[in-house]
């Protein structure tokens, strides 16, 4: 008699556990995606700043290099707002590259997270 009363309870348990686990897993994936994009943008900005700081290059070269790095690693939409300009780095003349991008929820669209990263490098002396 007892077995009949609990018939179908596994399905209910599964649905209740799934209702908690799916949002948790999706939240972890969203954080991982944002961290991946942020770290990639920061690495590209730093590389672009180092490239622009060499003796025979300027800020425009650094911005272009940053765009190429981002497009190769992620997508062109993340490289739309890249700026490079001369700046003081620890009191010495240098180059700063700034990247701004929007990361959509799970890469599908919808509400987005604004990211702004920058890279700095001291200019080489000729």
Describe it.
This protein is α+β, with helices and mostly antiparallel strands. The protein has one domain. Helices cover 50% and strands 26% of the residues. The chain contains 3 helices and 3 strands, in the order H-H-H-E-E-E. The chain has a 3-stranded antiparallel beta sheet, with helices on one face. A hairpin with a 7-residue loop joins strand 2 and strand 3. Helix 2 runs antiparallel to helix 3. The longest helix is centred in the N-terminal third of the chain and has 44 residues. It is rod-shaped. It starts with a helix and ends with a strand. The relative contact order is 0.16. The mean pLDDT is 90.
Look at the helices and sheets and give the structural class. alpha+beta
What strand line-up does the widest sheet have? 1-2-3
Q: Biggest sheet, open or closed, and with what strands and sense? A: 3 strands, antiparallel
Strand content: 25-35%
Q: What's the mean pLDDT score? A: 90
Following the backbone from N to C, one meets helices and strands in this order, namely HHHEEE
How many domains make up the coordinates?
A: 1
Helix content: 40-55%
So how many helices? Answer: 3
Gap between N and C termini, in Å?
A: 91 Å
Which parts are unreliable, with pLDDT below 50 for 5 consecutive residues or more? Answer: none
Shape: rod-shaped
């Amino acid at each position: 008699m007892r077995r009949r009363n609990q018939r179908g309870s596994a399905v209910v348990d599964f649905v209740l556990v799934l209702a908690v686990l799916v949002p948790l897993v999706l939240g972890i994936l969203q954080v991982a995606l944002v961290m991946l994009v942020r770290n990639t943008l920061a690495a590209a900005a730093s590389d672009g700043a180092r490239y622009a700081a060499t003796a025979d290059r300027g800020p425009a070269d650094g911005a272009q290099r940053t765009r190429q790095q981002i497009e190769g690693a992620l997508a062109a939409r993340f490289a739309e707002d890249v700026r490079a300009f001369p700046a003081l780095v620890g009191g010495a003349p240098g180059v700063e590259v700034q990247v701004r991008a929007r990361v959509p929820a799970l890469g599908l669209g919808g509400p987005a997270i604004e990211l702004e990263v920058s890279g700095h490098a001291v200019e080489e002396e000729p």
